[in-house]
Amino acid sequence: MRTGETARLVMRFEALSDDLPEGISFVFNLYRADGVYVCGATTLMEGMAPHPPAGSGRVAITFPSLPLLAGRYHWRVAVNDQGGMLVLAEAKGVCPFRVVDEFRSVGVVELEREWEVRLGDGMDRRDAAHNADGS
Question: Are strands 7-14 and 37-42 parallel, antiparallel or unpaired?
């Protein structure tokens, strides 16, 4: 995928026991291949109430414009209890993927930005370009 493209992560789960907790929450964590922790969130952090227990289900997370820079990445996904503290099930290092970019930045993420450069005459580059004809 390319920097800024939409990404969608889908997790399916199935309980191996009939002994279900009072409620469940869901987790994603994103890591760069070298182990750098990029981002993580839970349904609880998003303000969602704990979900009722279920023997199986599907969770999808869409990232409309993933700002990752070039590199290899992978996910950790988990089902937690209703308080978000007890991990009921997890999968590490799943759905590995590679990002390519246009070499506009280095690091982990592409940050939106606007440059303003003021030179000794007090004019920024944009002003100088617009006023090259003396106007």
Answer: unpaired
Q: Does any domain span residue 2?
A: no
Query: In 10 A of CB 16, how many CB atoms?
Result: 8
What tokens appear for 46 in the block?
């998003």
On whether residue 62 sits in a domain, the answer given is yes
d(CA 79, CA 59): 10
Q: Read off the pLDDT of residues 66-86 as tens digits, 9 standing for 90 and up.
A: 999 999 999 999 999 999 999
Question: How far apart are alpha carbons 100 and 102 in whole angstroms?
Answer: 7
Does residue 21 sit within a domain?
Answer: yes
pTM: 0.81
Rounded Cα–Cα distance for residues 80 and 74 (Å) = 20
Residue 135 lies inside a defined structural domain of this protein: no
The amino acid present at 52, given as its one-letter code, is P
pLDDT of residue 17: 86
Q: Which residue stretches of the chain have pLDDT < 70?
A: 122-135
